[in-house]
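Continuing the series of single-chain predictions for the mutant panel. This is the parent chain; the variants come on the following pages.
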Amino acid sequence: MMTPAQTLSVQLKHLAIIMDGNGRWAQQRGLPRLAGHQQGAEAVIRAVDECSRLGIRFLTLFAFSSENWGRPEQEVTTLMELLLRFLDSQRQKMMDNGIQLRVIGDRERLSAEVQQALLVAERETEQGDRLTLTLALSYGGRNEIVRAVRRLAAEVAAGRLTPEEIDGSMLESALDTHGLPAPDLLIRTSGEMRISNFLLWQLAYSELYFTDTLWPDFDSTVMQRALEVFQLRQRRFGLTEDQLRCMQDACLKETND
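Parent structure:
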């Protein structure tokens, strides 16, 4: 008999999280926003550890959106410093625990120092085969799709591709997330109930879970609650319940045979 963790890993391969509420967490405690971001970084470590423990193969975190560039300059600088600190403190741990780091987003807007640190971390963890941790940095879903379309348009202009050859699979291959499965579940913290320009293409059939918990308070208990709700949901992908039942019966028969 499979353990709960093994059962979960079969059903949920890819978890995506919009990490929201650092500022409100600090405000509620009369602390500067920096304190909220620092505690948020600790929550990232807890989430990675929990996914690794449960056997979840892919974790994608919305770390810094393209819209976040509009925040006060000092806050943006602080967030980038925290990112550099995170990479420096966690790189060896990721290597030891089989965690591969991947970054999606418009890297050109990041400083040369941050870009270099990301490249080093990606290169040093590329052999990780237990968990793929994807950080969405300087990321916006619309921008990602625009950049993908531009790549395909360039191929058409060069005569290497015709418009008729472009389909959903080809567009997916041009996205930042190429090679990753679509998220099975999206969690958003802080009580906000929107996806905020995150993985617009990839979330088409993902289950959504919203919690009032602020990101710095996110822990294994909150994650477990979300995963329990996910396991109770029926993902039909446009099919009927009868069709799903027949497919499940056929899979079960094939397994038993």
